[in-house]
Write a structure and sequence with these properties.
Elements (H helix, E strand, L loop, with lengths): L1 E9 L2 E7 L4 E5 L6 H11 L16 E8 L6 H6 L7 E8 L5 E5 L2 E3 L1 H11 E5 L9 H12 L2 H48 L6 H12 L1 H16 L5 H18 L4 H27 L4 H21 L4 H67 L6 E13 L2 E10 L7 E2 H4 L2 H16 L6 E5 L7 H14 L5 E4 L3 H4 L4 E10 L2 E8 L2 H13 L5 H11 L1
Parallel strand pairs: 3-13, 3-14, 8-12, 12-13
Antiparallel strand pairs: 1-2, 1-4, 4-5, 5-6, 6-7, 9-10, 10-11, 14-15
Helix pairs in contact: 4-11, 5-11, 6-10, 7-9, 8-9, 11-13, 13-14, 16-17
Length: 550
């Protein structure tokens, strides 16, 4: 509840400080006395934009401060989220500096206007005839229905899942676009990869292949040269082996003459053995050298493909090609990874859809269960407010898409007169009727949930007599569970208040200022009498006022 309000240097208010009680508080005053100024100042501390033309003395600071008792409103999470100290008696303060700058504070912590406004919306609900128009909006109508259905927790769960659904859906779209974008590159990369894999690079030894190729390409030459070598070694007269044998015999004879020739003999003998080994190996190599055109063609094909790949990828070694193959494998695998992610995301999306469908069905069933109750209570309350023929027709229609508060469209139709046609509220109800409907709705909601402080700004315009009495009774009933303010010109409503304040103007020197005064019992009697009969208070007006107050 709003427990205290302080306004300095705002419009015609020089310095105002007032304390408020729980229950129903009445604010009265002549037209132009400054009730709108009071609301304007309150609006500033609740986060409204500054109109600098309303600053009285532009050389001085404008300060507006409101103290709220917020015990029982479950607002701790709001304070924690916004890193603000939580206090049961929370202070909202707004300062407008001579420089034109504006500052906002909650419990002395600087905050931006959006935070101040967000908290203000949860603390006080100001209703004027103009703001009553929100009654015609789908959002407000759903709020009414969901209040009775106690759908708060279900809608909160639904909205959390909806957020996950939206995030997942966005992720899926991004993955699909990524897949589409990379598909062409992946197709080309797959082609290159297959081209490399067909060669089986890990089994390629370029040195061995080139050696084998050269051998197979020169079979006749190799055979001819090996035969010549064989002949050079093995010829009977001129062969190396034959001459070494003769040479060995020479030194064998000389060795008998002198031991100095023995080393020569041994060396020639070693050379003879080596030559014989060479001869044997040459013969072996001769046996291996055979023409193999098919193998030559195979090797030629492999070498050509390898060299083409060298040229294509601008590299010089098989190892570099292996590195390129590895990179291509990663790129191709990345598409597979995207496809896997798409599958997982689609699975998650289906899960979210099921959860949303289940939760929205719960919400719908709860809504359906209270529609008849809401219609009955609305029609009963409006009958008390002079609209005995008012009828409502409320229905839910399923939506094909997930909306912010469920999967329903709401049809909230109204018919003010017997035999009339049911139409949407904005087409069927006048301004005065909307005011009464709004009051009836707020009264109903107050029975089902704890509402913030509510302020009715001349919501009773155009009403009088018994209907005004009934409206006052409803406000009084609401005030049993919440703090209610009513700015009114009707004495039938004014007498219902637990406390009564009067807004008035007075001249101080060369200036006119607006003040707010809490009326005593006697002052209140006079104020009610003046509301009944004018400034010249008659005995009958006083008697009537006394009767109303009793």
């Amino acid at each position: 509840m709003l427990s205290e309000l302080s306004i300095k240097n705002y419009a015609l208010i020089d310095n105002l400080q007032v304390q408020f009680d729980s229950g129903l508080t009445i604010i009265t005053g002549e037209t132009g006395a400054g009730k709108s100024i009071l609301l304007g100042g309150l609006g500033l501390v609740l986060g409204k934009r500054v109109d600098f033309s309303h600053i009285n003395d532009i050389t001085k600071k404008c300060i507006i401060e409101a103290i709220f008792d917020i015990d029982g409103f479950n607002l701790k999470s709001f304070f924690e989220t916004n890193d603000i100290d939580f206090e049961i008696n929370t202070i909202l303060r707004r300062e407008v500096l001579p420089s034109g700058k504006s500052r906002a504070f909650i419990n002395d912590s600087p905050v931006n206007l959006s935070v101040l406004s967000a908290l203000g919306e949860q603390l006080i609900d100001v209703h004027s005839q103009q703001q009553t128009q929100e009654l015609t909006s789908d959002d407000f109508q759903f709020q009414v229905l969901d209040s009775l259905a106690k759908n708060h927790n279900s809608i909160k769960t639904y909205q959390q899942t909806l957020k996950l659904y939206s995030t997942t859906q966005k992720k899926l779209t991004e993955l699909i676009n990524l897949k589409s974008k990379s598909q062409k590159d992946t197709d080309y990369n797959t082609f290159l990869l297959n081209e490399l894999m067909e060669v089986n690079l890990h089994s390629i030894d370029m040195g061995s292949l080139e050696l084998e190729y050269n051998s197979l390409s020169n079979v006749e030459l190799i055979q001819s040269e090996l035969a010549l070598a064989n002949q050079i070694i093995s010829s009977e007269d001129l062969g190396v082996a034959s001459n070494l044998l003769k040479l060995k015999q020479v030194f064998y004879k000389l060795m008998d003459i002198s031991s100095a020739y023995q080393p020569f003999f041994e060396r020639i003998q070693s050379a003879s053995i080596e030559i014989n080994d060479i001869f044997s190996e040459i013969e072996f190599e001769q046996s291996k050298v055979n023409a193999n055109p098919s193998r030559l063609s195979e090797i030629d094909n492999i070498l050509q493909r390898i060299n083409n790949l060298f040229s294509k990828h601008n590299v010089n070694s098989v190892q570099e090609l292996i590195g390129i193959q590895s990179e291509l494998e990663s790129k191709v695998d990345s598409l597979a990874s995207i496809e896997s992610s798409i599958m997982l995301t689609e699975k998650a999306l289906k899960s979210h859809v099921k959860q949303l469908d289940d939760e929205s069905l719960k919400i719908r069933e709860k809504r359906k269960s209270v529609i008849s109750k809401l219609v009955t209570q609305l029609e009963t309350n409006l009958s008390d407010l002079g609209m005995s023929t008012a009828r409502f027709k409320i229905s839910l229609n399923p939506s094909d898409s997930f909306l912010n508060n469920g999967k329903d469209y709401l049809e909230f139709l109204f018919n003010a007169n017997k035999g009339g046609q049911f139409l949407p509220l904005k087409k069927a109800a006048s301004g005065g009727e909307l005011s009464r409907i709004m009051l009836a709705i707020k009264y109903i909601i107050s029975k089902y949930q704890k509402l913030p402080t509510i302020m009715f700004d001349e919501i009773d315009t155009g009403l009088s007599g018994e209907i005004a009495h009934k409206m006052g009774d409803i406000m009084n009933q609401m005030s049993l569970s919440m703090q209610v303010f009513s700015i009114t010109h009707l004495p039938q409503i004014a007498v219902k208040g637990k406390s009564h304040f009067k807004v008035f103007k007075k001249d101080i020197g060369k200036s006119t200022v607006t003040s707010l005064k809490k009326l005593s019992k006697e002052e209140r009697l006079v104020e009610i009498a003046q509301m009944l009969g004018g400034k010249q208070v008659s005995e009958s007006a006083m008697a009537h006022a006394q009767q109303l107050l009793n």
